[in-house]
Design brief:
This protein is α+β, with helices and mostly antiparallel strands. It is built from 8 helices and 20 strands. The longest helix has 19 residues, at 253-271.
Length: 452
């Protein structure tokens, strides 16, 4: 194939925009619409994508160059024929605003509740009297990368042109925090308020320091990276969210019989050659669909607190806790309301395998509005699951057991599933939680209700 020239597309009414970041290098395999460079005008930063796929043969620009529409950016060899339109809408992020000398910018605050991945922050209407915030100097892709890792960008020192923050800067900051070399502003403030140690900032006594070896033989081993990250999140969530847990039971006798029969039919179909692969339907898949129905009826459970407002989500992304050798991970089934039981079961199986193999991406663990933590395969009766911030509720389920249930005339053997619903008392009250559990139990008792 002949070489393909990649040129600057229509980037709007901008001229002589500066190249501030190079995102690829010669020899890279370039995907269709992969970002090549980041340019910045006096108003916005924009990533320019490739209009073709292929191997990058030559890059025609460098950091600091000025480019305009139609200028040659790069040359690809072995390029694919698929193209994107000449006018490409690229993601924009506001250029950092320099505060006036009369107004001091407020101190940055680390935040873990973030906008959905890929969403560009909206610019407010111009108001000369309003306080101007100084935003971190970074491209949209770096902002997205930092959001996925929960990194406070305003605490990262940029190494790029004019102090611009690059992806490697975010990675280096994350490594420093995890190794204990650097503390985030939130952690440092907490430590300062209470003299350091666990419980810092809460007015608690410092964590006891004990020489365990004087009592007998011991062994020390490092905690897994995922467990250390999870521990910090769980600690924050338990301390900052006023948890309440409602316990209930659902009669899943008929639903379990239907699930077993469905799996048997799938196995027979596969053996007869009518189906090449068998998707094993699990009770958790039915729970996800049942929870979607309950969330539609009780929207406050599919919400998040954002300052003084409550964000009610119109999408239904359900997280499920997956037990892995490295610790707990929470993959997310996106748009569960638009998927059937078989599709949900298949996606759960694929995501759970990726979790066990340590191959889950941050995007596959973000965006959930509600989470289910299931111990059904292990045992137990009831427990108090910790809410996964910024969500406001989580459902815990344990192993179902056959119990005698009074039907008005006699005791009947029924398969009962224990439910443990933890909820944020700042958003939800006891009556709403009880109604949610009752409705969820009704759905699981007669799954035809999801059609109503």
């Amino acid at each position: 194939m002949s070489d393909i020239e990649i040129k600057v597309p229509d980037i709007g009414d901008f001229k002589d925009v500066a190249v501030i970041e190079i995102m690829v290098k010669p020899g890279d395999n370039i995907r269709l619409e992969q970002s090549l460079v980041t340019v910045e005008s006096d108003k916005a930063a924009m990533e320019i994508p490739s209009s073709h796929a292929g191997v990058l043969k030559e890059l025609k620009v460098k950091v600091g160059d000025k480019v305009n529409i139609g200028d040659l950016l790069a040359i690809l060899e072995g390029a694919a024929t698929a193209v994107v339109p000449a006018s490409v809408a690229v993601a924009a992020s506001p250029a950092p605003t320099v505060p006036t000398p009369q107004v001091a910018a407020p101190a940055p605050v680390a935040a873990t509740a973030v906008a959905p991945a890929g969403a560009a922050p909206a610019l407010p209407a111009h108001n000369p009297t309003a306080l101007q915030l100084q935003l971190p100097h970074a491209s949209p892709s770096v902002r997205k990368f930092a959001r996925e890792l929960g990194v406070p960008l305003n605490e990262v020192k940029g190494s790029g042109l004019k102090g611009r923050i690059t992806e490697s800067d975010v990675q280096a900051f994350t490594r420093s925090v995890m190794s204990g070399v650097v503390q985030t502003a939130a952690a440092a403030t907490q430590s300062k308020n209470a003299g350091g140690g666990e419980g810092a900032g809460l007015g608690l006594l410092p964590w006891p320091v004990v020489d365990f070896a004087k009592f007998g033989p011991i062994e020390r081993k490092d905690r897994a990276r995922i467990k250390k990250i999870s521990a910090a999140n769980l600690h924050r969530n338990w301390v900052m969210i006023p948890h309440v847990t409602n316990h209930d039971e659902a009669d899943i006798t008929e639903l379990e019989a239907f699930r077993v029969a469905t799996n048997l039919e799938s196995e027979k179909s596969a053996k007869s050659g009518n189906n090449a692969s068998v998707v094993k339907v699990t009770m958790l898949a039915f729970l996800i669909k049942a929870c979607v129905s309950a969330l539609k009826k009780f929207p406050d459970f599919n919400a998040s607190i954002d300052g003084e407002q409550l964000v009610l989500k119109q999408y239904f992304h359900i997280g499920f806790a997956a037990d892995t050798p490295n610790g707990l991970m929470v993959p997310v089934i996106r748009d569960a309301d638009k998927k059937g039981i078989f599709q949900i079961s298949q996606e759960m199986s694929e995501l759970a395998k990726k979790a066990r193999d340590g191959k889950l991406s941050p995007a596959e663990m973000s965006g959930a509005g509600f989470t289910i933590s299931s111990l059904g395969g292990i045992g137990g009766r009831y427990f108090t699951p910790i809410i996964n911030a910024p969500e406001v509720a989580i459902l815990g389920v344990c192993k179902s057991t056959m119990e005698p249930v009074w039907d008005g005339k006699a005791f009947q053997p029924r398969l009962m599933l224990p439910l443990s619903l933890s909820w944020d008392h700042r958003v939800i009250d006891g009556a709403s939680a009880a109604r949610f559990n009752v409705y969820l139990s009704q759905i699981l008792g007669d799954f035809r209700r999801v059609l109503l």
